Amino acid sequence: MRIAIGLSGGVDSSVAAYILKKQGHDVIALFMQNWHDTTGTLHGDCPWKDDLDIAQLVARKLDIPFHSIDLSEIYRKRVVNYMFSEYEKGRTPNPDVLCNREIKFDVFLKEALKLGADFVATGHYCRKSEKNINGKKVYSLLAGADKNKDQSYFLCQLSQLQLAKALFPIGDITKPEVRRIAAEQNLPTAERKDSQGICFVGKVDLPVFLQQQLSAKQGNTVEILPDYYEKSYQNIDNKTVEHLAKPYIYRPNSGKKIGTHNGAHFFTIGQRKGINIGGHIEPLFVIGVDVETNTLYVGEGFNHQGLFRKALFIGENEIHYIRNDLSMSVGEERDYLVRIRYRQPLQRAKLVRKEEGLYIVFDELQRGITSGQFAAWYADDELIGSGVIY
């Protein structure tokens, strides 16, 4: 079988390539260059040229053909421009999820197929299985064996067609074992640190990065006190999922102006850094972003009520199923395990399907539900579907 491995210059993809070669497959390495601009990137983050050099060394060590492709133009259009657009609306996107859906398992996959590959492999910590249902192959995306490194969440938007061509060679082993194999085989990536930050861009100073397209503009920072909720939400019927899923609504007169900022669109729910206002016993956290009035709403303390919600909503057009055979019908309710961010422990919740979309009601209050992020739901360790939080 001919398999194209997405060789990134990191230890995970290097060991994935080694495993495939050891299994006797015809392995070819394919390096993606998706970003050139260094605007906003932090010093010390490895540039793509270092990644390329190390990926080439790994391919040479494993004696596999090496190819490099520049996908930066399409990456900017499909991932980075989407990021700018979402932040401009006061939402917080997840570029890593988009990168997997739009680049690694779409454009990159097509390039690999042109080279005669039967499958594309990556160094993700997740697993894949298949079964026959009514005479048709159905693929499942499963959590990685290493629960501390499980990356299935980042693949929550993949389709059956994409999964059909995907392989995850290290999904059944742990990160320490990956490091051990790399060291044992003297791979150049054995002790290399894991990449961090935005997929293919790296760690960034987000406001500086976003100012490539979004202008800085001064606005007011308003503090919301705890009694605001007692006055404003005491008459809400908390038994309806529609009310439970609504974000808190703030107005400039909902609280007290305590400072200024350089652009509400540079902030996200739950953020602590960058507020730069003192005089409080506990830290301030962002609890609301209004880009229309350019107002930033903050609350004091990690447990401020504005950081917690019981439910969320995913619009009809944003619901995605990896397992289409498990899609929900209008009026149906199901219990699943849900996460709203990477590495968050799975949370028990009820999914309620209505005409306008999908409501997710958690057993316990959730901190930092953020518009623009992805909620993903699981049955045990299988990822069933996902959607963009409204």
Structural description of this entry:
The chain contains nine helices and 18 strands. The protein has 390 residues and is an alpha/beta fold. The strands form three sheets. Strands 5, 6, 12, 13, 14, 15, 16, 17 and 18 form a nine-stranded antiparallel beta sheet that branches. It has a five-stranded parallel beta sheet with strand order 3-2-1-4-7, sandwiched between helices. The longest helix has 20 residues.
Topology:
Elements (H helix, E strand, L loop, with lengths): L1 E5 L4 H12 L3 E8 L14 H15 L3 E5 L1 H17 L6 H20 L4 E3 L4 E8 L2 E8 L16 H5 L1 E2 L7 H10 L21 H5 L8 E5 L3 H6 L8 H5 L10 E6 L22 E7 L4 E6 L7 E8 L3 E3 L11 E7 L7 E8 L2 E11 L6 E6 L2 E7 L2
Parallel strand pairs: 1-2, 1-4, 2-3, 4-7, 8-11
Antiparallel strand pairs: 5-6, 6-18, 8-9, 10-11, 12-16, 13-18, 14-15, 14-17, 15-16, 17-18
Quaternary structure: single chain
Please identify which CATH superfamily of the largest domain we are dealing with. HUPs
Return the domain count.
3
Number of strands: 18
Specify the helix fraction band. Answer: 10-25%
**Low-confidence parts lasting 5 or more residues at pLDDT below 50?**
none
CATH architecture of the largest domain: 3-Layer(aba) Sandwich
